[in-house]
Amino acid sequence: MKPKLSLAIGIVCISFSPIFVKLAASPAITSGFYRIFIAWLCLLPNCIIKGKLKTTRRALIITIIGGLVFGADIALWNISLLKISATVSTLLANLAPVWVGLMSYLFFRKKSGWLFWAGTFVAIIGMVILVGYHNVLTLQFNEGILYAIAASMLYAGYIMITKGVLQHINTFTFMFYNMLGASIFLAIIALLRGDALVGYDNGTWGCFIGMGIVCQLIGWLTINHSLRYLESTKVSIALLGQTVIAGFLAIGLLGEVLHLKEIIGSIIVLLGIALSFLKVKKRGVVV
Predict the structure, then answer these.
(1) CA angle at residue 277 from 271 to 279, to 5 degrees?
(2) Contact of 167 with 159, CB cutoff 8 Å
(3) pTM for this structure?
(4) Dihedral angle computed from the Cα positions of residues 245, 208, 227 and 225, in that order, rounded to the nearest 10 degrees
(5) How far is CA 77 from CA 2, 33, 155, 199, in A?
(6) 280: which strand partners?
(7) Which of 172, 182, 185, 250 is deepest in the core (most CB within 10 A)?
(8) SS (HEC) of the chain
(9) pLDDT < 70 positions in the chain
(10) For 172-207, how does the pLDDT look when each residue is reduced to its tens digit (9 = 90+)?
(11) Which of 206, 209, 238, 208 is nearest to 222 (CA)?
(12) For 103-139, what is each residue's pLDDT tens digit?
């Protein structure tokens, strides 16, 4: 498959994730568990038959830890989706690149260019508009917004934990152990919370299957395929299209309505995130 087509398919697939979560008549953690577990079950035969389960002990540990963090990210994002609109929740969850840059600077003293800091500043302004400056000044935030921001921070941590190991492990092997760790984590959390894992209607099971096969399996396999041939910066910016597509799907399928403040804030946040991805090469060329 051509890389650009693969990327486009992946973006459309993952855009359905918030729609499935909202349509499923189940707790947020249960939806997250089945999203990961069903995709893992689909990978299992391929990994066993083709012998893609072997890896080093260090890579295995890092991959499973990354899976635990990814599971926590999915859990918080799903909880957020049940409390605020799919568009706003998806948008805030996509702030991960900003946190990656900030964490890299704070913990590893990795310097970022002025475009990153400019993009971060613009994204923060957009968040203030989105949330409402009165709420920022009085520190009164909707729970769904806090969960979405926390999810984006966890995903940033996931990126930082796993980005090195991906260079030394097969993509299928990585996804197998990563999703295994995430599935076990989410199952334990669901049981501790008393969330049911069975007893749902056919529509909800359809949403679980959709999340697992369409969003997690097909979505991320096609995106990972595109990353082998396209620049990661361009792929990252293109992934912001997920927010736009999810927004239109939420309006058409869920009947959600965005207020002017949310539309303006969302556009500014998207511009800020996109700007933070750009880099300046020699002779002042922005790429």
Answers:
(1) 120
(2) no
(3) 0.84
(4) -120
(5) 31, 13, 10, 23
(6) 286
(7) 182
(8) CCHHHHHHHHHHHHHCHHHHHHHCCCCHHHHHHHHHHHHHHHHHHHHHHCCCCCCCHHHHHHHHHHHHHHHHHHHHHHHHHCCCCHHHHHHHHCCHHHHHHHHHHHHHCCCCCHHHHHHHHHHHHHHHHHHCHHHHHCCCCCHHHHHHHHHHHHHHHHHHHHCCHHHCCCHHHHHHHHHHHHHHHHHHHHHHHCCCCCCCCHHHHHHHHHHHHHHHHHHHHHHHHHHCCCCHHHHHHHHCHHHHHHHHHHHHHHCCCCCHHHHHHHHHHHHHHHHHHCCECHHHCEC
(9) 108, 111-112, 130-141, 231-234, 236, 276-287
(10) 888 899 999 999 999 999 999 999 999 999 999 999
(11) 238
(12) 777 776 776 677 777 877 787 787 777 666 565 555 5
What's at 237, amino acid-wise? I
Tokens of 111: 């310097």
What the block records as the tokens of 81 is: 């989706």
